[in-house]
Amino acid sequence: MTRYIFITGGVVSSLGKGLLSAALGALLQARGYQVRLRKLDPYLNVDPGTMSPYQHGEVYVTDDGAETDLDLGHYERFTGVPGRQSDNVTSGRVYSDILTKERRGDYLGATVQVIPHVTDAIKAFAIADTDDVDFVLCEIGGTVGDIESLPFMEAIRQLGNDLDPGQVIYIHVTLVPYIAAAGELKTKPTQHSVKELRGIGIQPDILVCRSEREIPNSERRKIALFCNVRESAVIQALDVSSIYEVPISYHREGLDTEVLKAFGMDHDNDVRLDRWEEIIRRIRHPEGEVNIAVVGKYTGLMDAYKSLNEALAHGGIANKVKVKVEWIESEIFEEEDCILKLEHVNGILVPGGFGKRGAEGKIAAARFARERGIPYFGICFGMQMAVVEATRNLAGIEKACSTEFGPCEDSVIGLLTEWKSAKGRETRSEEDDLGGTMRLGAYPAKLSANSQVAAIYGGTGISERHRHRYEVNVDYKDRLEQKGMIFSGMSPDGRLPEIVEIPDHPWFIGVQFHPELKSKPFEPHPLFASFIEAAVKQSRLV
Ligand code: GLN
């Protein structure tokens, strides 16, 4: 029997529901269960693909090409279970499907309504394709009381009745704030939030209370009493210094035990947490430190580069060092001399990005890294800019540019209008919609046998996730290879450059895909592990 855990949030947003879901998934795995994690997002965008990273943080891409909420990244990093298209749905997607059916006449003249049509669609989504797992953890975005989230709350309430007794539980995450002036923790916001939830018909089985301070037993009892939950099911969630401490910290607070108890299941089984203990040990006791500059555009908002930040930390875990990341706006390098700010770093990473603003600064950073022998890692846009730089300054084609910035004479980066995917032939043009028209999801690549990347990956066949419209133009391959930039990874048909490297440089690799999306703390991505290793070597030189 598949069991469902619905996770809602109350009081304020940003309480770490996503991390709680991911950590609980990891704890259930540690007890030997199979899990799947999902997210239901109440906003009206069809997917987060067109939302600004400033507003919504990174867009996480799955193997099957879905552009999803960044929480799916946490789920995958913590559990290793690859996310799928069917693991993230928004109100926008639900309404868009329903309206398409309505226009087609599928409802046979019925009045189409939130209940039952929207709620039925949400329920179908929540339970679809889950027969193969023991637990489905389903997080509802937003906060209880939001107008938008009501149909989702109603749908999960109904599921509690539709499914068998003991097949569904509800976890509610709230805040227990500390009021310094009174010197007290306050339980009232939690009480109100649960009251709101019960008003919708959902009685939470477990309350997870985020708090800056220990919640004393007296307050726990009060919360239990007023919110109608067992005292042991009031779980406190104190801040921890690294997100990878979250699973063990929830385990200590008894979260996984309470979940199994709520389902009426045996909870004495073994919990194998050694891999999490090892990760924490490495994070707490690094043997060294490296400085990495990330030269990007959304550097003011860490969520915009969530997976990247984590993958760099994983590279540190692999090498037992702490990775200090300096986030630098690329635009500053468009002024002369500013580039010298990069002199002290042990590695430069130019991440994915879109649009012209700041591009020349990224090109300058790639040049600095190449000329000074500083390890350089170019990801997607960062690869494209490194190729533009090499075409201009190594191959001497001065006007080399990307057509992303407008028409150009020497378009070493250009729009690809036709390519093959698992779905068959795909096409796009300049005029296409912005949503869902990129090369998205996992694509295979072939690596040259003697290349540095083949050594790093330990093989010549790889599959990595993509999210981009433009491609390196293979017509420039020979000219660049003659000057020392090798196209060491190509699409299987040999048309799309996937990786470039400069063998004559301590570490200079550009990849057209996003390796950060597949990195995990217990399985650091080989490119990140190798990049940080190169940075460690570089740090010993300076
Ligand atoms: N803007 C570039 C493109 O669309 C790169 C995208 C990215 O870095 N994800 O091809």
Which descriptor suits the 3D outline? globular
Number of strands: 25
Let me know the average pLDDT: 92
Radius of gyration: 25 Å
* Ligand names: glutamine
Per DSSP, what share of the residues sits in E-state strands of 2 or more residues?
Answer: 15-25%
Strand order of the largest sheet: 13-12-14-15-25-24-23-20-21
Treating each run of at least 4 consecutive H or I residues as one helix, how many helices?
17
Structural class: alpha/beta
CATH architecture of the largest domain: 3-Layer(aba) Sandwich
Helix content: 25-40%
- Briefly note the CATH topology name of the largest domain: Rossmann fold
Structure write-up:
By secondary structure, the protein is of the alpha/beta class. The protein folds into two domains: 3-279, 3-Layer(aba) Sandwich (Rossmann fold), CATH 3.40.50.300; 288-414 and 472-541, Rossmann fold. Helix content is 34%, strand content 23%. The chain contains 17 helices and 25 strands. α8 (217-227) links the parallel β10 and β11 (234-238). α1 (17-30) crosses α9, α5 packs across α6 and α12 packs across α17 (526-541). The longest helix is centred in the C-terminal third of the chain and has 16 residues, at 526-541. The mean pLDDT is 92. Bound molecules: glutamine. The site of glutamine (GLN) has 10 residues, from β21. Glutamine (GLN) binds next to β21.
Overview features:
single chain; alpha/beta; binds glutamine; 17 helices; Rossmann fold; nine-stranded mixed sheet; globular; seven-stranded parallel sheet; 2 domains; 542 residues; 34% helix; 25 strands
